[in-house]
Write a structure and sequence with these properties.
Two copies of one chain form a homodimer. The first copy, chain A, is of the alpha+beta class. In chain A, a hairpin with a 4-residue loop joins strand 2 and strand 3.
């Protein structure tokens, strides 16, 4: 059986590895240069992304920038590989309901398959949730498949409604 | 038993009443003057609306106007009573996914309890769906309770995912 000292040593070692790992990952706002850092390849792990040129990317990036703080695309970069390994977006919807309240919508959350299990998804979710709260939202919502319900429950979310969709 | 002629006469009469009724209802974009036409009272039938002054309403109205065609609040006015009796909103989310695609989000659909059964909900939904399609969205989505699933199915929507939410 492992002694307390051995367990403690192992725990210190783990913490050290985790700290080193965490230091390799930096969370920040999406930048135009992330086109070259695999941002779209990462999104392609979530859904169909299609061929997007640098020019098309920059155009969309600037459109979103014009929304100011009402739209935020958050990314985590792996500094060692200079690749984007996690992302998620939040936009703030201005309503008349709830005394002209605001609702945060979280969209397009994905973590690169090579770095899953390092809690990067939680980091993204914690950031986006806090962002919506700081923006004055009375709630933050997202749509997901049943299989991801457990992950979002761990992030503090509750299954409240159903999503209906119509594709053109 | 009713004869075919009687049924036909009744049907003509119904059509006439419906046409007259339809003429009383006009569908258009939300205007600043709708504050005085009970727009917020109507929203209050959907969820908590709270006390909103004319000034606060106008401020939010102008904020939404600054989004241009990416946000549209549709209303139906009863011309006889000069009251807003139905509403729904759609906003266009610009994404990187789907070749920098757009997704339409339908929000805050409600019909005044006094005019239900006149298909005003369908009129609102048809308009908002068509609006999203014309705006170039590849899909349009909404969140609702299970009890409203049937209504949205009749509007062509399918239950595809679950909604998760976190309230602050």
């Amino acid at each position: 059986m492992e002694t307390i000292a051995e367990a403690s040593e192992k725990s210190d070692l783990l913490a050290e590895i985790q700290t080193e790992e965490q230091e390799n990952f930096t969370l920040r706002r999406l930048e135009a240069s992330d086109y070259a850092k695999g941002f779209l390849d990462l999104l392609g792990q979530l859904s169909v992304c299609g061929q997007v040129s640098q020019e098309e990317f920059t155009k969309r990036f600037e459109e979103l920038q014009s929304l100011g703080d009402d739209h935020f695309v958050c990314v985590i970069e792996d500094l060692q590989s200079a690749r984007i390994v996690a992302t998620g977006a939040v936009f703030v919807e201005r309503k008349f309901l709830r005394t002209c309240g605001k609702a945060g919508h979280i969209e397009d959350v994905v973590v690169d398959s090579s770095v899953r299990g390092k809690h990067l998804g939680h980091k993204i979710m914690n950031f986006l949730t806090q962002y919506a709260k700081n923006a004055g939202c009375y709630k933050v919502i997202l749509d997901c498949s049943m299989e991801n319900e457990g992950f979002y429950e761990k992030c503090g979310f509750k299954n409240t409604n159903i999503q209906m969709s119509l594709r053109f």
